[in-house]
Amino acid sequence: MRLLIAAGGTGGHIYPGMTIAQVWQARHPDGEVLFVGTARGLEKDIIPRSGWPLRLIRSAPLSRRPSWKTLRSLGLAALGLGDSIRVLRDFRPDLVVGTGGYAAGPVLAAAILQGLPTLIQEQNAFPGLTNRLLSRFAGAVALGYAEAAKHLSPRARIFVTGNPVRPEIVARERDEALHHLGLQGDKTVLLVLGASQGARTINNAMIQVFSAFLPRRDLLVIHQTGKDDYERVRGELEKLTAGGPKGDGTVYGNIWVLPYIHDMPEVLACTDLVVARAGAISIAELTARGLPCILVPFPFAAENHQEKNARVLEREGAGVVILDQELTGPSLLVTVEELLADKARLQRMAANSRRLGRPRAAWDIVDLLDSLL
Fold this sequence. Notes:
Blueprint: E1 2-7, H1 11-27, E2 32-37, H2 43-49, E3 54-56, H3 68-91, E4 95-100, H4 104-113, E5 118-122, H5 129-134, E6 140-143, E7 158-160, H6 167-171, H7 174-181, E8 188-192, H8 200-213, E9 219-224, H9 230-238, E10 244-246, E11 249-252, E12 255-258, H10 264-270, E13 273-276, H11 280-288, E14 293-295, H12 305-315, E15 319-321, H13 329-341, H14 343-356, H15 361-371
Parallel strand pairs: 1-2, 1-4, 2-3, 4-5, 5-6, 6-7, 8-9, 8-13, 9-12, 13-14, 14-15
Antiparallel strand pairs: 10-11, 11-12
């Protein structure tokens, strides 16, 4: 049996595809998996490094405003459709999955035209344009958020599965993770994240509140700055206290700054409260662990989908939303301190987050794939 997965652009599209592939391969050990992406996105590095085969096609985002770029995008889309037809002819998949990115549209369209079983995996509360257009023709649409259904074709075969998260996200035990990281279990752990590239607004707010967090012996702050902003943030902490090396980062008293967290499952297992952007897969991982969140949606996400994702958690009592333009050091400090001081509220938020989590989403999606055959 052969599974083709079109995924690319950002980690938010790539990692769900790889998680689906991992679970599908475990169920079908003799099966073959092929990824399809473009040379524009992170997939050209991430997917081969993870051991999965990858074919590249030509494609580009469709401009929503008519211009010469629209003509160029349409031309590349036509070329991408031709590339996709050739990939399908060569690989001859039994199933085709699209998890988003520039490659997903042409590949799904080609597969639908050839009558192949197809599944769209939509991560966000507001679906992307390609998925809205193709949803009526796909064999199934697996949603990360039930709210997305109202934006899709009424003819779409919709299943609310949640977003797939890596099995190791849920499998890590807190005590084991604390021991491995050399941390004590007597402190509350605040994890501060942007996306993998960091979030400058969040970093700026944190710089303003480092002096308030440093004296707290009951608190440990783990702050992923992003690679581009690491030296700047570290330099600001150096002005307040001396630091020393720890792992890939630097520890300053009770504040540990890192450019990038390579073992996110381990760090999440230790965490009590998270400050983060509102990408769909980040939220899926946080809710799978039952973590309360302070969410700062990326304001330039397509069709503002990050705020829509974040509002779901806010409405369900699992998160607090601070808009990017409203985030300051004082506003962040007040929110963090209010939550840490109200243990009962923090526990309710954790319970609500856990209720929203779908740790078995990848298995449910693979069940859905098998049902298409």
